[in-house]
Amino acid sequence: MSTANKISLRQDYDQHGFVIARNVIDAGLAVEMVDHIAWLSEKYPDVRPEMYHHNMLVHDPFIHRLVGDNRLLDIAEQFIGSDIALFAAHYIAKDPKKGRAVDWHQDGSYWPLKPMEVTTLWVAGTPSSVENGCMRVLPGTQNNKLFKRSEMVDVDRKKYVLEKGIHPNQIDESTAVDLELGAGDVSIHNPVIIHGSNANLSDQWRVGLTLRYIPTSTRVLKEDHVNILLRGKADVENIYAERPSYIAGEHMPFTGCEAWV
């Protein structure tokens, strides 16, 4: 990535609270993300595909390969520096006609991090469009206060992925921007920006993976939470996963999995 592009990404992010980087990962890796959703659905048949959380992913060799991809880490480094860990990964995959909405929220309301130095890379495994429930953001709200969960309202879990959302009186949807992405594109957003997404009413899957990267100087205030150390050195005593070994029949095969044995 050129120096000019790096500056542009950071300037847009600082001004608006989000930015889009196009064609970050290759088509083959994006397809493997979609394959991984199918594999996870067989492994966890009782879990909705919007709910493939970090605890299901943190010891998976394909996830380690993906989150440690230098193309993603080079982007993360622009926002959090050169010592990088992954705090959390979460697939929010919306199946056709049934994928649930995500109410307006701020990521930082949910995260036990001190300080709140973190940036999210939202990696598209399929096209993400208005029709299939792409992410929507309220530009500039990264400068707002961070709502506590106690200040948010309960929402219908049969319709929404998260259990809480910001009260509608606090939201001006007229300013919303739809983040439409192609497979392999990445959006980057601030932990305080208000965002959400609509339900998937289309006949196409929407597969996205949220990757919450932190500098290794950020402390995770959650007992026994396992992170992934990816670049540089660990500055504080967080818990880090060991590099998982690929086991045929136990893990999804992927390009280069032989190197993980």
Explain this structure to me?
The chain is of the alpha+beta class and 261 residues long. The protein has one domain: Jelly Rolls, CATH 2.60.120. It is built from 5 helices and 15 strands. The protein has a 7-stranded mixed beta sheet with strand order 1-10-5-12-2-14-15. The chain is globular and about 55 Å long.
- The CATH architecture category equals Sandwich
Rg calculated over all Cα atoms: 17 Å
Distance separating the two termini: 31 Å
Annotation field: number of helices: 5
Can you summarize this structure?
The protein is α+β, with helices and mostly antiparallel strands and 261 residues long. It contains five helices and 15 strands. The longest helix has 17 residues, at 27-43.
Jot down its keywords:
261 residues; alpha+beta; Jelly Rolls; seven-stranded mixed beta sheet; four-stranded antiparallel beta sheet; globular
How would the blueprint of this fold be written?
Blueprint: H1 3-16, E1 18-21, H2 27-43, H3 54-57, H4 61-67, H5 70-80, E2 84-91, E3 102-105, E4 113-114, E5 119-124, E6 135-137, E7 153-154, E8 164-165, E9 177-178, E10 186-189, E11 195-197, E12 208-215, E13 219-220, E14 226-231, E15 239-240
